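Encode chain A's predicted structure.
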Amino acid sequence: MKVITKLTAAAVGVGVVIRQVSRSRARPAADASREPASRWRAVTVNKPASEVAPDGVLPPPLAELGDAVEVRITAAPDGKGTELAARLRDGEPPATARLGDRDRRQDVRSALRRSKQLLEVGEVLRLDPQPAGHRPPTPAGKALDAITRRAGREGVL
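Encoded structure for chain A:
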């Protein structure tokens, strides 16, 4: 009987500790007056701010996103160009929406990457990582092809 009492007391004690730890790590509820729950994504452009957005006109890839994104242009640390940052206005999409073929966060990352290329080089560079010739369809090759197709929206592997 004493063993059962000790085990029960230990289990209750562990439960109390777990509850306290989970409460201490819980995030407070989002306040509607605060900023959207979207993360800033940024690139550093090797140009002064006056050339990044002359007369307040955004680079075309970011301008195409319209009112869906908020854009911030600031000086980069140590005077090393300009930081071009963007985020979704209405917050991050839920995990279920991200599983689909269109993730709006990828659109923001791609627009920032293309804007940087346009500003620094004058054109959007495209590197096709597919090797020339025919490759036998091995299991590893099929997996690599699938990953490369998926990464086409994110950049080159």
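The first strand starts at residue 41 and ends at 45.
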